[in-house]
Specification:
- By secondary structure, the chain is of the alpha/beta class.
- It has 13 helices and twelve strands.
- It has a six-stranded mixed β-sheet with strand order 2-1-3-7-9-12, sandwiched between helices. A three-stranded antiparallel β-sheet has the order 4-5-6.
Amino acid sequence: MDVADRQVLRRCRVRLVSELQVAPLWDALLSRELFTPGMIEDIQQAGSKSRGDQARQLVTDLETRGSQALPLFISCLEDTGQNSLASLLRTSSQAAKRDPEAIRPLDLMPVVLKPEELSVVKPDPLKPTPGKLTAAVLGPEELGPTKLRPEVLRPEVPRPEDIGAGGFSDVRAQIGSRGNADLAYILNAEPCGHCLIINNVDFSFGLSTRFGSDIDCEKLQRRFRSLHFLVEVKHNLTSKQMVHALVELARRDHGALDCCVVIILSHGCEASHRQFPGAVYGTDGYPVSIERIVNIFNGTGCPSLGGKPKLFFIQACGGDQKDHGFEVASASPEDRAPDSNPEPDAAPFQDDPGSYDLPDAVSSLPTPSDIFVSYSTFPGFVSWRERKSGSWYIETLDSVFEQWARSEDLQSLLLRVANAVSEKGIYKQIPGCFNFLRKKLFFKT
């Protein structure tokens, strides 16, 4: 689906979600091969209690269905008597083709203030302006150190000057070893929790074999076992099998455990989203959005993990853009073996590879607690993988965890990963994360 069609769907999304009658559509969608039976079943299960949820998922998935998805969908609406929605989409599509700017959100023009409008006028306390509040102008005496209140600092939070010769290990001792649940998650269970690794290597439709991924998988198995997780690996799952494996994990009783980890190694692409960007491919060539994966483990789907950290590590491309980087005076030496030939985990078979949808900035980002999603690359960009040594991200993650997991929290570890990966290769890559943890997380080592 091209950029204009995606913009049409987003422009009409609210009305589609509120008015779309999904039940009559299934046969029409199947007859035009717009969706497979498995995809329709997934949509029905995702929103089994709500027509709106089904409509929202259908519109989201529609953006991944190729260049003719919008006109075929309009025909399905007409066949099922939903003519007002069909007319809305057709009119918007025609307008977009005539004038692409017509369907884009209005740009907000900055207000340029003249110098005289920025001057500070000290109000006369004897002549207050009627109907307006007078500004309180603080002088040096009001801002002096005697007015500061050091007592607002919580004494149990270690300050930089309190860090002794042991460095961050001292900080960990102050936070973690005391069992202070206000500052850090307590990971005392044995095993600490489940770790599911989905390793997709061989694809049956249009996607290349991910040589080197098995190396990543083996490293992660060893690493998370050493961190006291019960590791389970599943190889070469279709999109439907991926969802089934994740739902099965979420439905387990995690009451006696302290954490849960999900790792996905696969090809990936951009996808329409409201919360978490990106999607990963099953071996059948159909994508599963990161947003859907994460939400399987929310409070409703997995109540026994409520209040406990849920960590997701995604080794997959976020799109097909290649970052050439930019020169800096203090750049580190290039970290690349002479005979290396890195491969991207992007999806090369898209109808229009240059028009992946951009991160949806219209919807606001909610704040689900105790969720941490680590991406191998920035949304929209490729993620590089070596055939002999595995992906840059997983290789670095394993090395950093080996050296620093005993003394540093998860965020600090991943800052090290991001810095190390950013120095690799001719093409550049930078990992990142969506962090909704409420506390520091130190692995059990």
